[in-house]
## 1
Amino acid sequence: IHIQHTNINMAPPVADIDVQTAPVVVPVPTKGSIAPGHSSASRLSGPLTYSGTLDTYEHFDVTNVIGREFPNLQLSEILHDDDKIRDLAILGKLIGGFCSRGSSTDTRKVSQRGVVFFRNQDLSIDDQKLLGQRLGELTGKPETSKLHKHALANSKRGIAVDENGKLDDEVSVISSEQNRKYYADRYGYTAKRLASEGWHADITFEHIPSDYAILKIVQPPEDVGGDTLWASGYEVYDRLSPALQKLAESLTATHHQPNFVRVKEAFGAELIDQFRGAPENNGLDFKAEHPVVRTNPVTGWKSLFGAGHQVHAGWINGVTERESEILKAYCRFFQNMKVSSCAVADRRNSLPTHF
């Protein structure tokens, strides 16, 4: 199985930001900043509103909690329409039927969807990258954040991203063959592990993690597998009791990914150690601290973020080791994505696991 994966780096988590209105100097929404003049400051001053430009296309909600599918829409048709691309970015967050996150406007009385599916896409690699870049730019990402360059899953492996043999550091090809080589304990034919062990938000070991991600299935297995499951971090947070919500909001977690250095030492893999999509993403320690609960700047809704595989080798800060393990293991929810051509996901609140 080969899956093309494009991550769009974002601003630092909103929970770390003192929100203040920035002057409107570009024709895209502006967002609050960490401090005046900080190059990594997010430029959105408040939640965005879905304008309805995609409502005329056939669509349906995949579940009550997460996921919407457009079975006939070609992303290439809307690629150069900023209004529709912005609505696509917002739509991944503002569609559904729950009111628990509340607001006085109709567009806020909805559930966070987190992921949008598109079938049989004709999107080229360059267009996929352009789509990812525009999703971030049109929702206020800082100018210093670009497409992510994965430390390990990059062009240095020699895996082409298209039929012409093109190599590209900004597109990560998820290869089942290589996963079995590098991670035999997890992906080998005899591996025994729980499916829930794979839940993750992308590249959270980076100081500036992923905002949106585009997942395109290119070569699914012929017999079985190839599915991706999705969970809603918003739904997990909403199901916590008020007391546990308050506790989670007070905590931070250290996200750690030690496997890349292990693969480098065991197989001689070459790692990217500088500017992996943002100037803050450098070095080979692959360790970063993030809030356990994050607020999505597009919706203003809270999501459980310090959970899943991204903290498997990490820990919850400021508590005992046993308390950390209990908190890490607490919540697991899922939603199944069948084999499809393309998915656009908000990595601030949707957590996938791959099979």
Note: The longest helix spans residues 125-137.
## 2
Amino acid sequence: METLKAVYINEMFKISKKKKIAISLVFSFLSLIVGAIVVYYLNNFAGIRITGSSDFSIMVLTVLSYTLFPLFTAFICIDMFAGEFADSTIKLTLTGLAPRFKVFLGKILAIATSIMANLIVVMILSLVVSIFIDGSVSNLVKIVLAYIMEFFPQLIFALVVVFLSNISKGTTSAFMLSILVFLVFNGLGMIFPNFKSFLFTSTFDWYTLILGGYINFSKILRVFLILLGYGIMLITASYYFFEKRDI
């Protein structure tokens, strides 16, 4: 455990030093500000009420879950795998005392922590903006649960990018493949709606299952099991290629 902890701390430190991550966070913050200005103007001056105090945080989650969150996730994963293999900095980690599995697991845990941290920051900022817009926040529990639920599909997308990064020769190819897979899966969901529920991209908005008056727990469990299946397969496949990759 001490070895895994050391690897995890090291990976978190490296993530904190990446400029792309800071840029992604800035864009998330700016998108919140722009959204707040638009909503405030429409609600108070244009006479068009497009969102309430509880809906703004959900509206932000809906928009960012298909845009900046996946981009943020892709940047982290590609830099931590394809990027480190491309510039050979991963040699310092793999030639140390930690076995490859713990290095791999430490990276995955660091990625998961970063995704959750990003969601928490955006949620807190959106709640603050909600108070600014309407003076209060309702349905706080559902908002918190929605952001927690969003963590799981974003983590699955991260594992997809990790897998692609481990079979790619460079950061550019890994990034392009990640975009292609994201677009293809979304496209398949529109072309074949009957199979949409089996595509991980269709789960990006599964938090909507708890927002209505009736909560379908069986459907929530079904989606969770699908995500769990994706996670097991992707971790297994990603580690296989990570283990076989030469440095």
Note: The chain has one domain: 1-244.
## 3
Amino acid sequence: MLFKAILATAVAATSAVAAPLHAREETVTVTVTATECGGVSTTPTPMPPSGASSSYFSPSDTWQYSVHNGAIAAAPSLVKIYKSDGNGGKDQSALVTFTYPVASKGSQCQLEFHLPAEANPAGSKKIQVFSSHKPAPGPASGWAPGNQRNNHVGTLSVVAGGAATWDFAQKSSLAFKTPCKAPGSVEAFEFVGVGGFDSINWSPSAGYGPRIVY
């Protein structure tokens, strides 16, 4: 009888120890599963915000650039970004210069692009934005070396009647909100068509096209 009592006590003790052990194993399993689910979940990469702003300034100069021969012409009433695989390389891009006003001092600045509701963009409806080493020198038969294209800022998708959205943008660029430059500072950009066909027009005098909001 004494042996049976000892054996029963040992079995009971073993069961008591085994039960918590099993529970701890389940807890570990749940924890690992939760961690793995979090690892495979995808989060959209945040892109720079874009939208209407009550304060902005337009380019101080806008020029039409001929990719074919490097000529710079005064922008007509309707500025054109045009790119086509079938035009013999006679693409058109836009060169713009911004001069920072006193009013933007101490603010956060961001580059935007707007089209009116009656605009009719065609093709890819996208714009590659590049910074320029220096502003366009004005009407000229050419601009050596090249067209002073510098860094790729990002790619815009335009829409009639609103602000374009950034498909892609380089950090530490004006595609994101950054401290405005000192009043009187000059910054230049080139706006270029994308893909096999792209046609985007706007009227600078009406306040459309590129702008810097603050």
Note: DSSP finds one helix and 15 strands in the chain.
